[in-house]
Task: inverse folding
């Protein structure tokens, strides 16, 4: 493109654009779902509190001093094993809303794994994803709102090299609060910022998988 053509692109064409605006399609979005306060909150809190009485929190050695887990192996199912039925029902309700918004017709999903996480002062969650998990989620049982945020990274890292689009690449955060439930793609890179307060934060994380049929893609 010559300097003259470039000048025309910046003047004549842009003037036309001001008179006849087109449409912008947000292609390939990354849908994240959250509700600030679940229904049946007191019952859910009581169920979790009783289950936590029997938890011996430990760190995952391979991660170093990040945060404490009810099951560092991630093979257990804290929600199912402790009969947290009110929490499970609430997850199913919002999972259905989430799937409807995705136009995803399948409803034969299961909570495959779940665990409790404890963040003391100085603890954090490194940036990671949940592998082949279909949908991941977290419920906040106890938080002081300023004891660390969950953040999500842009899944299209090459956008950061673009002068035009790099403003769309900023890390997105959700400020936790008691009773907040969040659902997101299991493949999405996310982490938890450092708890700088002297209060503990406890959350329940879970992975949802949908059963595959032989004729499904």
Result:
């Amino acid at each position: 493109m010559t300097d003259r053509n470039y000048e025309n692109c910046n003047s004549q064409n842009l003037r036309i654009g001001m008179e006849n605006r087109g449409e912008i399609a947000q292609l390939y979005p990354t849908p994240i779902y959250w509700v600030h306060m679940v229904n049946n909150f007191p019952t859910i809190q009581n169920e979790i509190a009783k289950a936590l009485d029997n938890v011996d929190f430990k760190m995952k050695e391979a991660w170093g001093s990040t945060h404490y887990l009810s099951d560092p192996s991630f093979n257990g199912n804290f929600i199912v094993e402790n009969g947290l039925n009110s929490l499970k029902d609430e997850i199913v309700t919002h999972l259905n809303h989430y799937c409807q918004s995705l136009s995803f017709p399948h409803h034969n999903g299961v909570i495959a794994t779940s665990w409790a996480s404890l963040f003391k002062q100085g603890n954090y969650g490194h940036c990671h994803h949940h592998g082949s998990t279909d949908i991941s989620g977290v419920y906040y049982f106890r938080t002081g709102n300023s004891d660390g945020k969950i953040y999500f990274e842009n899944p299209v890292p090459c956008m950061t090299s673009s002068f035009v689009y790099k403003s769309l690449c900023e890390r997105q955060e959700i400020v936790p609060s008691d009773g907040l439930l969040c659902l997101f793609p299991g493949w999405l890179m996310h982490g938890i910022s450092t708890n700088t307060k002297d209060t503990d934060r406890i959350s329940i994380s879970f992975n949802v998988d949908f059963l595959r049929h032989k004729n499904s893609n």
Summary: The chain has one domain: 28-210. The first strand starts at residue 33 and ends at 35. Helices lie at 3-19, 41-52, 78-81, 85-101. Residues 28-210 form a domain with the Jelly Rolls fold (CATH 2.60.120.620).
